[in-house]
Write a structure and sequence with these properties.
150 residues, alpha+beta, eight-stranded antiparallel sheet, 2 helices, 33% strand, PH-like_domain
Length: 150
């Protein structure tokens, strides 16, 4: 087989240094500039979400940071990003879906609740409004879709 005929596997799209997260989200039809709850750049998405605890099932507001360069979704106590509370690595995320069955019965806003399923835990997250929820879901799905290409 000639050298020109060998296919070289491409990097997942989100690992490419040319991938622009903000442009990608806009291409999905989201009006990003109108969503004041999020800080969305070419490589990061950040904003507050309410998260249900793992052991103690209380709901707490956390600052979430989707970071393509570190390939993780991290959450902090507040937006200064000094006190890291937890990390969800992209390769651990199996799926992201709207909680249409209302499995998080105690959610402060059931209509704005979505789930991030990893291999060892199910995270229940609540956005502040429907636009923010759809953007967060699409942003997180970007990592899971691209990771599954391997």
């Amino acid at each position: 087989m000639c050298v020109l005929c060998v296919q070289i596997p491409s990097l997942p799209l989100f690992l490419s240094p040319h991938f622009d997260l903000r442009s990608h989200v806009q291409s999905l039809g989201h009006g990003v500039s109108g969503c004041i709850d999020l800080r969305l750049s070419s490589r990061r998405c950040a904003g507050f979400l309410t998260k249900r605890g793992g052991k103690v099932k209380t709901w707490k507001k956390r600052w979430f940071l989707f970071d393509m360069d570190h390939r993780r979704l991290a959450y902090y106590t507040d937006c200064d990003e000094r006190k890291l509370k937890g990390v969800i690595y992209f390769q651990a995320i199996e799926e992201v879906y709207y909680d249409h069955l209302r499995t998080a019965a105690s959610s402060p806003r059931p209509a704005l609740t979505f789930c991030v399923k990893t291999y060892d835990r199910l995270f229940f997250l609540v956005a502040s409004n429907p636009v923010s929820m759809r953007i967060w879901m699409d942003v997180i799905v970007t990592a899971t879709d691209e990771h599954s290409r391997y």
